[in-house]
Fold each of these.
Amino acid sequence: MSKLEALTSAQAEVVRQMTVCNACRYCEGLCAVFPAMELRRAFDGGDADYLANLCHNCGACYYDCQYAPPHEFAINVPVAMAALRDETYARNVWPAAFAGAFARHGLWVTFAAALSVAVFVAGFVAANDPGALFAPVGGEGGFYRMMPHWAMAGLFGAAFVYAIAAIGIGVRRFWRGTDAQAVGWAEIWQACRDAASLKYLDGGGMGCMNAGERPETDRRRLFHHATFYGFALCFAATGLATVFHEFGAQAPYPLWHPVVVLGALGGVGLVVGPLGLLAERAKRDAAIATHTGMGAAFLWMLCLSGLSGMLLLALRDTAAMGLLLALHLGLVFALFLSFPYGKFVHGFYRFAALARYAHERRTRKVEAVD
Amino acid sequence: MPGPGEDPSVLVAGGGNAALCAAISAARGGARVTVLERAPKFYRGGNTRHTRNMRVAHTAGNGILTGPYPVAEFLDDLMRVTKGVTDELLARMTLERSAELWDFLWAQGVRFQPSLGGTLSLGRTNAFFLGGGRSMLNALYRTAEDLGVVIHYDTQLVDIVLDGDRFVSGTAESGGVRREIQADALVVASGGFEANIDWLTQAWGPAAQNFLIRGTPYNRGEALRLLLDKGIAAVGEPNQCHAVAIDGRAPKFDGGIVTRLDCVPFGVVLNAGGQRFYDEGEDFWPKRYAIWGRLVAAQPGQIGHVIIDEKAIRLFMPSVFPPVVAESIPELAAKIGLDPATTTETIAAFNAACVPGSFDHTVHDDCRTEGLTPSKSHWARPIDTPPFYAYSLRPGITFTYLGVKVDETARMIRADGRRCANLFAAGEIMAGNILGQGYLAGIGMTIGGVFGRIAGEGAAHVQA
Ligand SMILES: Cc1cc2nc3c(=O)[nH]c(=O)nc-3n(C[C@H](O)[C@H](O)[C@H](O)COP(=O)(O)OP(=O)(O)OC[C@H]3O[C@@H](n4cnc5c(N)ncnc54)[C@H](O)[C@@H]3O)c2cc1C
Ligand code: SF4
Ligand code: SF4
């Protein structure tokens, strides 16, 4: 977006609030947003988009602010940032026709998931005889009797590549819109560390605030770690399974197998993490709650994918295997397809913002004088 | 409103730093404590809500404080700003005990951060609260609640009963309902009277109607009035207040820190008649902003207009309200309601009087005027590069100096010289004992912290 273009109302609100914050700066030590803000005297739409995505929504600055509502300055940074974040996802989405998917994400995802599961069930039935869906087909290669490996790998590989490509295009649009410059490897590495540790989700050390002004120490961070690393482990398990498959070892694997161990650990994370985050959301103080349903839908999808995977592991030698496999694959397929159009993208936008922040810190100086 | 049968052993009036330090210390000392806070919950904590730091003595830097600040240096600084108008014994004790405040506050959950962007000069001497004063207050309130301190919002101390030098009971009022509360001791930590325009008008005349109040609208000084009327000795000048020049568009109350304007040294300041009236470049702004409140208060309509040009716009902290901008001086003058011809003349005269020098805003440079009255002694550069910018200035009141006299145990002293047995004061209401005039950034919170603790501990241990 060019600097001259008019601001959206969400951008205008962030610009308004950041102008007050920049004259105040009391929250400087809370997170990356305020030091990044101080590098500027005035804010355009791109700056607002960038700062919004740098905010981790820890809530601290709302409770710390002497200008929060009912004060006439009505400063509520977490809420303004969250609204603009959602808008940046929609504004930069590819293809643009899907922009509405963010706002109606819950509905969209439920529909996609149901459809996807139904298609897998139907596919299994069509490809095999109807009875096969309920017959115990344990032992090596059992899963692939329901659906050939090439088909599974091809379908999911394609869905994943599509998701990553679509997200990549969106994030690239976002990156260009914020006038960001090329960043170096050291800065990418810094962003990796900050993102992997959720460095800025702790209110500057006092703790993240969620249900009220009492800091919650680390609960949201821990649940987020469980979710993220659970997802990463499941992903690693799938990748490893593909490698083993190439070398002739076919799923289902025995319980001690690295693929199963990684998948089981990841599955636990994917169930516990999202449930924990959903519980935290339920407790969130109405003053800083910005729930559009997008985050909840994403969390439920992750949780159900994890849960169906765990069930599949537990019941893979029973008659339920066929149906569970269809359920699990259906959910994961819908999850992949929903990636570019829901909360999943926040990680990429946040990462881009963190990389830019690392870059700015090295190359820009605070203009204001002492 | 405290219910019947809820009589505490220590009653605290006020809800800011001093009151909460007192309440926490009294509770830790074993007292049952009730706090009466006049403000609603969001506005709790008076002007403490707007603070950012506290000046503390320390023998070594600690990673956040950048170096040592010995008591002796602190005392020198205090003597310099007050020109000796202080109770030296009380002052020395306050500064010595300020060294305990970092650890005390940390133990109550308060956290600190390095000095903020734009305030580096305070990084060695002042402990900045992580998240600012409201975060600091929130931590104190959480701790007080955890210690069983009962807090009543929207509840004001409106009367007290004294029996000679003893406090007997206080009257609380909330929503038009009054109730008398017995307690073994009372700590009054209700701040000054800076939000009481009528009282300010008595001291300053009608000009006070145009003052802006930088902090809470709830510090109206009723408790101070009450104490003085009941025979407690006063300290500090009744007609003195800390008045700084702030953005004229600030709200009447509670605009806080963001309404400051740091651009005066880089431009000229004109009054409503389009004339300069004081040396804008006398010293660095942090050393001068407090006299500019008075200077502007003395001008017609209590208003001033800073005019700068493009060369200066990036030299100071960003302002909360955007400046008025114009491509020429007459156009700018018209926009801000000054006479274009006079303004143009004033600027031309100023520009002609600037002698060439090498501009450096970080030192007292040699850019000054010659043959101009009033002169500008530093940072004087012709205002000739468009666009031109204007900000309006009005006096913003930070706090008042009049207070009650106390001794080193924070007990109030009566006008007849006798010391009260169980009546304590802490914070701004007694700051005048130490800060008779002038100001040292961060010392308001120091005095509140030190005397709050002393008052709370003392109040918990009075003999009923
Ligand atoms: C914008 C601004 C910034 C400042 N920044 C700093 C800074 O960084 N560092 C610093 O040291 N100082 C600063 N000060 C000064 C500082 O705010 C005061 O010195 C300090 O807050 C005094 O603390 P206190 O507890 O005595 O009073 P306050 O914090 O003002 O608290 C007074 C309390 O008493 C309550 N009250 C009033 N009347 C009654 C009544 N009748 N009954 C019951 N309750 C009552 C009020 O509601 C309030 O809660 C600043 C002031 C302002 C305005
Ligand atoms: S959120 Fe409030 S306290 Fe924090 S920097 Fe902004 S205006 Fe200041
Ligand atoms: S990360 Fe936390 S402190 Fe920082 S802007 Fe967001 S909500 Fe405020």
Amino acid sequence: MEMKHVKGKNKGNIMMYALSTCGWCKKTKRLLNEMGVEYDYTDVDLLEGEEKAKAMEELEHWNPRRSFPTLVINNECIVGYQEEKIKEAIGA
Amino acid sequence: MSDRVEVTGKEVDKLYERLNREAEASGYHLNTDVEHTKDLVEGLLVNEKRYGYWACPCRLAEGIKEKDLDIICPCDYRDPDLNDYGTCYCALYVSQAVLKGEKNLGSIPERRPSSEERKRAKPKSIAKGVSSLPLPVWRCKVCGYLCAREDPPEVCPICKAKKERFERFI
Ligand code: SF4
């Protein structure tokens, strides 16, 4: 699956399932960028066919509702843009 | 990977103005966080170019109109979410209380049933016992507007949802 990597401080494993068109996803990306942490993300709406199905399957494992953004921070799953929770999980 | 669809700032501003005008004219309000709102308007325009309709920017569309009908903006879930949370799922539309700053915005839970639940759901049955009515009554699934006429209107006069969003009510 195609992942985009954003360079920054290593605060552990941060992975984000997003949509390129989604407002809360953009806010979450901005927050991570402001915090300057390293993370990977994938915009599922830009994937196709098998890759998309695989990404959704993976997402379902973390978040059965398959909604966006879904953030996985060191195996802790945060659904939606939740500033405080995200900061806490990252330890900022 | 899908082709990247480009949308210009001018297109975004134009649709933003239009949605703002239409919302205010019928008692709805756009989110005053203009950066966020314009991001969403851009998402609507991208989805229009990609799928041919305004699929909700914050949900993954299937790209088949019949299957995405409930999430064409304004979606079937906007008004219940405005009632319960003061905002639609994407926070494009907000309630009066949010507008006045009495309520803070954040992500809200997804109300749309899962694809399995949607498949299982049966269409609502038409109310019986009023078969003597001279005309059928149509209901807009987005805002609840009712009208008695042979066919639903082209566009809902209240929320601007298109004809296909109407259901036979009585
Ligand atoms: S009204 Fe519904 S479809 Fe439109 S932006 Fe809000 S949540 Fe998305």
Amino acid sequence: MLITPAIVALQGIALSVAGTVLLASGFAGRILRRWDIHSGSELQLRMERQTYLISTLLGFALGAELLSLLLFVHTAESLSSQFVGAMCATGVLNVNAFGFPTLLLKIAVFFLAALWLLLNRVDNRGYDYPLVRVKYGLLMVIAPLTVAEGVVQTSYFLGLTPEVITSCCGSLFSSESKGVAAELAGLPPWPTLVLFYGMAGLILIAGLLFLRWLRLGPLFATSSLLGFGVAITAIIAFLSLYVYENPNHHCPFCLLKVGYDYVGYALYLPLFAAAALGLSAGVIAPFRRIASLQAVIPSEVRQLTALALIGFGLFYALATWLMLRSNLVLLG
Amino acid sequence: MIELTEVSKTFNQNQPNECRALRGVSLRLERGGVTVFKGPSGSGKTTLLTLVGCLARPTAGRIALDGRLLSNLPERFLTDVRRHTFGFVFQQFNLIRGLTVLENVMLPAYPLGRPHRELMDAAHALLDRFGLAAKATSKVEWLSGGEAQRTALARALINDPAVLIADEPTANLDSALSREVLALLAELAAQGRTVFISSHDPLVFEATQINRVIEVHDGQIAGDRRC
Amino acid sequence: MRAFLERQRYLIDYTLAALLRRKTRNLGLLLVYTLLVFLFSSVLLLSQGLRREAATLLQDAPEVIVQRLVAGRHDLAPAAWLDRLRRIRGVSAVQGRLWGYYYDPAVKANYTLMVAPERGLAADEIVVGAALARVRQIGVGDYLGLRAANGQPLPLKITGLLESASELLSADLLLLSEAGYRALFAIPPDVYTDVALTVRNPREARTVAEKITLALPDSRPILRAEILRTYDAVFNWREGLAFLTLGALLLAFMILAWDKAAGLSAEEKREIGILKAIGWETGDILRMKLWEGALLSLTAFLAGYALAWHQVFYAGAALFGPVLKGWAVLYPELQLTPAVDMQLILVLLAVSVLPYIVATLIPIWRTATADPDAVMRG
Ligand SMILES: Nc1ncnc2c1ncn2[C@@H]1O[C@H](COP(=O)(O)OP(=O)(O)O)[C@@H](O)[C@H]1O
Ligand SMILES: [Mg+2]
């Protein structure tokens, strides 16, 4: 086990996120059992006040998770000199089997917390707490995930023994090796490029249709998530090559380095925000039939959708610009 | 416009010190005029006013404002109704020390996010009206009792509420100042606002043009007299 | 949107006024908060600076160094090795190096002596590091007398001072000619201290090293990457240790923050009661209190970070310097190069602002959910 400040900090964040979310779900459990909106009893009043605490705790969890996501990638990056064969974050995440699962759990918790907060935002505008069950049910899903994240992350750090020979992005994301990551890296540029821009078209069309017909929520939520997946694939398959101007460097993390002007932040922030907003808009839309939300949801959902489309737009614009700017010629 | 049906309020429910402050109160309150809630100390006047003014929710029963059911609304909606409909004047003036008269008057409007310029103008207009223009920038702790009560009145009116609720407004004032405040309340009623006063001070009854007196006793309505 | 912004502005206004009204009460917390950020960022900035210094220093170091081992100890390498190493595939250049240490009883310090053929020094000429010159109070043109291996004094003329980006390396350095070196230590002409290799493709360094152990069984190849790794490990370890020590302070800070947020004065409680009674909602109070935390955190963070920055980069890192540097006899004026590092800021946020929020969330919520009708019953 390595002890570095970043690892101490990450463990601290994981502990506080799991702690706050568990606390919140403790309150939520009672709310699910005892909630009675028609009662004026002191218990009901107390529970209604606890809803404020729960949403504050989840807001905190979302922020902490974002911090943790960034810090995790940076930490992996900075530890790369400690492991033989690791040139960047990818290699370090591959030191043991828990590296990538930790990252995926962090992303999952981030998306779910964002969805929860947006559900909460809508719920707060209905006069009869219309989404109480949905919201606190979702919380019951998020809570074990944060615990799992803490456990997996701890296993990962415990298993970080220097001098392990690892594979780095050079080999993990290279066309010759096997595995999901390598498959992504080995995707042929042309079809992937077509898929990438095809997805942009799909998101745009789905978004526009959804703005018109709100019952298309599931379509837009799915295309947002798919769009996120395709975007990550595209970053690994070819976008990173253009940024590094190196036909073999497929790493999605090196983008976050100073050396590339932190261009990764400019790419990932709108992408993550857009996917989270798009997913949430699609999930929230079906609740528009609830009487107290009829007036709220359409405008709210349209706003979220517009923001998601703007986010995807920013991402695609930047990605296109990066490819045009690059000196690398990948597609003859 | 405000209708209470079988409203009860119990404090410390299911505990040894349980206190039923209101028991099955049904009441209709109309728009306009001055209504006085009268009764001995501890009879439930303040509790009744907090329910009428959306400061608290009843333990049982229904409260409706202009036909809209309020008794089950979440706190944030209740607050929203309250700040647009009711202004409060308290027994203790309850001004925030360390802030100026002007700032105290503007406070209730902060959560509404009104444009700053417009809010300042509204506050100055109210201060002019209550003869406090010269005191606008002085800290509230230097005010005399009468000035403090007028500041509290200006603060209650900053969001232009239809209803003014005054809980024992004269309890902390000598009789001259009491008369002054009562005159102001009467004037507001004359201009079309609805005024609810709770009091057991006889001065209230002789000094003001009162439209209705509701007697509260032991958490129940003991008398209802229009004049 | 406009109303939203106005509302935030009003909340900030109110919070600022409230904070200023209770200056002395908040000052204590602010000071401790700033101190916490200051201590943490001092550790982080310092070790990050040292690490970067080490990396700069190793940048020009050869990818592979080959030493000879005799009975498990470093021994002089025969000149015949140079040719055999040159023949190994992947090696593009080979150079025999001469270096060593010299203990100077006058200042009770070790100098690092190195032969620098590229400087073309005459047998009695040397170039010395700035710190060395400072400690011995000598300059260009002066003579530095060293005691040779045979007991005779060997006067060497200083022809220059080392100007280096990295004082950590050059501080105690003394460059001399091959003839001077061999005379000083009485080293025969057919051996070297060790051999430096340049490898055509740095990624192949490891393979090259394996071939060397096969070709020269009594040799020990050392990779630059390995040295870097050791440096990093040492810094990480020391940094981690310093952090754990600061953990106690962090805990104390969290308790203080919790206590401040939970133990509101009667006056403050009354104020919040009034605000709720005149139309503020629980959410408004929550936001107001969160703004208060944000303002406090921002102030403490910027102040603490700026102070640490000054301390580490301009005031000589008196604090923690000895702990993290560890071997600092000759480096009284180590000058680190400042640089902003994203990871460092993220870590700093995670160990100062995050714990503050954790400690205050529940007390703030308790405050915000006060009964709005409480003031009517005062
Ligand atoms: N928060 C509370 N907890 C417990 N008892 C309360 C509370 N508020 C009011 N009461 C009780 O309710 C009864 C009515 O009080 P109140 O409405 O203040 O009467 P009034 O204003 O007529 O003097 C009193 O017996 C009082 O002690
Ligand atoms: Mg009373």
